[in-house]
Amino acid sequence: MVSNVFHRWKQKIKVLAAIKVLKDKGDSDEAIVDYVTKQFHVSQDYVRELMKVWPNPLLDDDEEHDNDPTPSVPAGS
Description:
Blueprint: H1 2-25, H2 29-40, H3 44-52
């Protein structure tokens, strides 16, 4: 099971790197989706979902998407 999780994480990193390179190159979103889908054998929906959270693709949807790295501390702690 660990190797399966690691494989998915590793593939996600590769897909994200490809998205970044293609975005930096100036490719359109649709061209990026087409290329990444074919190159990495992933679904178009998967690629589009990763592109939606760009540039913070490693954050979970539940996490706050701000740039403050300081964790909040409850008052009185």
